[in-house]
Design a protein that fits this description.
Layout lengths: L1 E4 L3 H9 L29 E11 L7 H17 L3 E7 L5 H10 L6 E4 L4 H5 L7 H6 L16 E2 L2 E2 L2 E13 H6 L11 H12 L6 E3 L6 H4 L2 H4 L17 H15 L7 H4 L4 H7 L3 E7 L2 H8 L5 E4 L14 E10 L6 H11 L2 H11 L15 H8 L4 E3 L6 H16 L5 H21 L1
Parallel strand pairs: 2-3, 2-4, 8-9, 11-12
Antiparallel strand pairs: 1-2, 4-11, 5-6, 7-9, 7-10, 7-11
Helix pairs in contact: 2-15, 17-18
Length: 445
Amino acid sequence: MATGTRLSRRSFLTRTATLAGVATVGAGLSACVPAAPGAADEGGEAAMEVVTLTMWKGPHKAAGDETKLCAQPTLDVLEEMHPEISVDFSEVPWGQYNEKFVAAFAADQGPDVSYQTESFPRFVNAGHIMPLDERIASSNFDRSYFYERAWEPGTYDGTTYSFPWIIGGSNLFWNKDLFEQAGHDPDTPPDTLDEFLAISQDITALGDDVYGFATHPKGWHENGQWPRRFGGHWFNDDLTECIVNSEEAYEGWNFFNSLFHDYEIAMPGAISGQEPGVGGYFRDDKVGMITAQNVFANSVRSEKPEFRLGAARMATGPAEGARGRSCYGGVGMLAIAAKTAYPDESWQVIETLVTPDLLTSWIGCLGFMSVSPHVNFYPDDPVLTTAQTTLEYTFFWPYRGWIFKFWDIEGTSIESFVLGQRTVEEAIEDMVVQINDMLREEEGS
């Protein structure tokens, strides 16, 4: 173990008051927010034994930027609140994420605290993730501090294995300047798919290689929502069969395909799949509307501060309720390694990271939405506040170990008809066969 010194309580309070990015939290939180323990007693600096925990997370900014701008400032405060703990934080590139976690956990060298996404059940099944229900109960952690549905992805076979930490989703973004040029109210987004189509046609009619809509041809998060908006489902209830070739699902697939090949109001996939990408073309006034994760708002406004950006729920399809406006949604979670040598300290870390100020300083810094209905990261930002309200229309992909295989099959299949290489029916029927074969193989293994 390493030893070291920490700032006095007085120094800690001074530093905390100046931490950039910490938002003011609404009144009434003290009754429901898990309180973080205080730092060392007042007085001079004192050396103490320090436990060093490892923490891994996939980056949500350019390499190194999340550590510098969001993670380290937050962890500095956490370590002063808990001077007995030091956190050795590492960004793990997404392209190496699964491979590195699998190898590390298999060798009993996994991180004490980790960021987990859709594939975390493979680690639960292998016994690498610590159940949290007893600690939640013994600490009197108020589960209503998080949105109720945010607990769902981290709950597996009735047991809670992780804390919700990041929640995000996609919504409709539009270019207000192009709306005006096409003769539409720049402050009024389309409410129905008929309105979406009409506005897209008018924007495309502006010419100069401008299109009403764009998406990446292999964008599985965004493109996979179209069958849902028409009442289709990807899987049966127990996730043993892919059923996204139903009549309702095909209505969605065919409408999506028509945007490219019949109405021709969607930027051709051969273009949108190349640099500068969908977001870049949107930023450069070549696209009127896109669906994208809400963190995109920060990116486009950072790159082009004068950009007139609108954000809203997606135009509704014929499906009833929230499904008609469905968009991608995901929850990123904090988990503890089952074999950590420091379970109590690891619990202190995840419990403290979700307190309002630290939640805001890290996750708000990334531009994601708040997992707590009691914490608004962006009270003075109407675009991101609107994005927060669209979370009720987000749908999570299954949190299963096979999800990366599924995304590869899905993305490749959709891309084939977007690029005109196969018909919609050929692509979807082949995709369903591949996914069902995958499900049977996973069940057998």
